[in-house]
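REQUEST FORM: STRUCTURE PREDICTION
Request ID: SP-0412
Submitted by: Lab K.M.
Chain count: 1
Length (residues): 366
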Amino acid sequence: MKISVVISPHGFGHASRAVAVIQMLHRTISDCKFDVITNVPEWFFKDSFRDESFHYIPFDTDVGVVQISPFIEDLPGTIDRLKSFLPFPNEKVFYLARLFGESKSDLVLCDISPLGIAAAKLARIPSVLVENFTWDWIYEGYLELEPRFADYIPILREAFEMADYHIQTEPICENKSSQLISRPVSRLLRTERNELRQMLMVDPNQPLVLITMGGIPHLINHLYPLEKFSRAVFVIPGASEQYERRGNLILLPHHHTYYHPDLVNASDVVVGKLGYSTIAEAYQSGVPYVYIPRNHFRETAPLAAFVERELSGIRIDELDFIKGTWLDVLPSVLSLPKKRREMMNGSQQIAYFIAEKLGIEVPQTP
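STATUS: Completed
RESULT:
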């Protein structure tokens, strides 16, 4: 069995969700192999997989939104990228379609690359779209600021509608007709909470706060307020070029050795940019989430509503984060208990759905 997985390189959220599905598919269909097609760095998948059999193929699969920082979009830069990406260049569609055929793919899984869907249609191979939003919906939110998005929205909408199967994952931004609505999708945990803390040299009962920007490097220049908050240890991926322990601060490079879902699970509070993969991992681990909204990104409102409803979520502004004034609310957040969840991960729901479509018998989904 072979599944080709075509992944948007916008941040790490789509790759994280796709990896979670691959992990569960490998458990469900043990002989399944995967072609991973994306420009997300190969190390992300090597760090995420252990026994899963996958072949990495670097390829420009999507545009998404060009970002200057975790909180600032580059709309003219996005338009420039879209000009060379849409309508889909024939050579790209033909290349992917030929690749699917030569690898004897039984299915094409897309998160949320419309190019993968178009190529699967040409190759006459069934495709599955996994999303909590699609780019046509995101671009509609920018029309007042950048009217040129109107040239690309119909092309994208038509491409997404070509998928043979449509799966939406909570938190959903726009409810559409779909064959499955899954719970939040996050990668499986590997390391127990206390074991991971030992690796970080953090005492089991020491408050631990993870600050994350969802895979976008973001050097934090205002660390002094964190150093003053001595009752907690802060672990900050992307805040240094190499591992550095500075008092109560653990500064990690962008590509570090710790598996991110385990970092979330080992923490008492997660602080960072509001994004899908962080929400899903905090949801899985039941960790309180202090989130920073991206005010111009259309995904913000539905994601924030989900966090407020399903997690112990507190909103802070980017300026409060930079100045460190958000630390005033941290003691109350640290006092919140974890929300224990026994329900099935959304990745398992998706894996069972796909296995059934491939004619493989699976347990009943609770």
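NOTES: The longest strand covers residues 2-7.
Reviewed by: T.R.
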